[in-house]
Automatic annotation (TrEMBL):
This is Lipoxygenase. Residues 1-608 form the Lipoxygenase domain. PROSITE patterns: LIPOXYGENASE_3. InterPro entries: LipOase, LipOase_C, LipOase_C_sf. The chain crosses the membrane at residues 59-86. It comes from Nostoc paludosum FACHB-159. The keyword Cell membrane does not apply. Keywords: Membrane, Metal-binding, Oxidoreductase, Transmembrane, Transmembrane helix.
Amino acid sequence: MNYSKTTTVKDFTLLNDTQANQQISQNIESRYQWERTYENLPGHVKGVPRGEGFSIFKIFIFLFTAIKGVIGLLTAQFLHLFPYLWGKFKKGEIVFTGTADLGLIKIFADFNNWNSLEEFNEFFKPWTFFQRPDVAKNWQSDIEFGRQRLNGMNPVLIRKCKAEDINPGGKFAVTNKIINPVRGKNIDLTSALAENRLFILDYPIFDNITTAELSDQLGRYIQSSISLFYVDEQKQLVPIAIQLEEKISTENDIVKKIFTPNSLPEEWAVAKLAVAGADAAYQGMISHLLYTHLIIEPFAVTTNRKLSPQHILYQLLKPHFFNTLPINNMARNVFLGRGGLFDNVGSVGYVGYNRALNRAYNGINHNSEASENQTEGLNFYELALPYDLGKREVKELPNYYYRDDALLIWNAIKKYVDDVLRSHYKNDAEIIGDRQLQNWKDELLDNGNIKGLLTPDKSNQLNTLDDLIEIATIIIFTATAQHSAVNFGQYDYAGWIPNNPFAIYKPFLDVFKSESQNKATLPERLPNRFQSIVQIVLVKALTIAPPYSSKSLATLRNPFSDPVAKQAFQKFQTNLREIETKISVRNASVSQPYTYLLPSKIAQSIAI
């Protein structure tokens, strides 16, 4: 009788515990609800869950930075009024008429335009609160143009050139005759290929991204440019050929033209500007937004929904999701909708960037989209840094500080993740038997719309500890180092508008007509003064770095309750300090230090 009674009490206790856990799980899942606004992209959370919002301090810092910047740049614009009117007066162009506007519209018609590149300096005075980016000193040089492909705000696209890339009968028909001489000497492309001196930068994702009619309606133009770079004797990466293309008829006949440093200086400058515009568009939409912000959000949502706070993976990952949900919610509301910033100041407008995001995530289907290049979609496992570097074949590319520093951070994170997870899981059977972990994986594939979580041979079956270590390493690296590398350089390179304009506002057809006497100057192609204000303020606000936006990797608090995992975190911090010293020593010996992957400057999460 007593035994039976005791069993009944125990059963009730277990039942109550189960019901309580189910209730807690339901409450959490009701806070973190899925919403599929964009069916072809990674899933995202509905709204901003309670407890995930920005702090008052962070909101103040963000608004203060933006408002101060707007006031400063509008002050510069106001001060521009006086020399502008004086210039008009001297030319006799201030004439009031009897029309309803007294001729004011005609007088102020070009007030918002740039007349010269030197005028951009007006936005970087003491009263504007903006420091002029260092790149303004030498942004027009070929050496600086090449350096930015390695260590600028989008250092993730350069790849080794292959023979088929520059086949005379192919898409990019570069020959020795076209490019020579290169910086005062002749080179042989075949020999340069064999010596691993040639590298390619291309943007097949932008092939036919908009129609000619849509570009004209937007008044913004983008090129699916192809650039060839050469590693010279000083181990500098320099551009030696850039191909642009233009539709020359309503039937979409396309003419292609290759520009080199031997072209007319103004034409070479326009060709480099076209590359810079495409690079800025790719960085904003793909490298930054899609491949860090959007791809990490499903992991943040699923971790909260399917793992308990006591779970080792929850404790490992949670610090790297800090403020990701509210910043992504802001991005969807401010950037992505019709009438948003991408629509109003981006190269391709609402239709174009939605098409670009879909192509980047799902690939191009040749049966439905016209493109000369096959563009593959994103598989999550391809975000692993060693995989990406191997695919681009850039191991021997000199002075590639992004690669060198990123590998240091990747290896440190992987060692840390390995130590933590192996202290908890003793074998693969425990991975298979962890119900929370398996539910986490299933949720990512289903509601999270994560593709290629594991390599194809794994069939998305999370059966080994090694696979979990790889997944967790990719998550943490992407949310920390990779995001920092493609985010925090935006003001340094896009704050100086001629270097990386968000959009180009004149078509390129004039540079294809050698006989044309009406070639647009560089300032005419750039965002106007008010559009430039938007870009400068935006990149300044988006680059608010630790400690104001979040903690850094170097200042992160120990997230674990388990003593062994705590010790692994402490070892990780020691490793990061050693990396900080190593990078700092290297930076002290180079003319232009690369600082975005110093552990003290890597944000703990995608928090801005």
